[in-house]
User: What shape does this take?
Amino acid sequence: MKNQLRVLRATRNWSQADLAEALEVSRQAVNAIETGKHDPSLPLAFRISRLFDMPIQDIFDDSAE
Assistant: This one.
């Protein structure tokens, strides 16, 4: 699933570790989501949405490539 997580993280000058700490997940989990190797759980997607104050659909794109 494509996502804007890396771009959003960069706008705040956060490292993957910073974002991971804010979301209470591992840095490896952030990396896997950013690179599309792993889709976040629904609760995690909601936490990401709240953290960046954006709708989930603006962060994640589930359309077929």
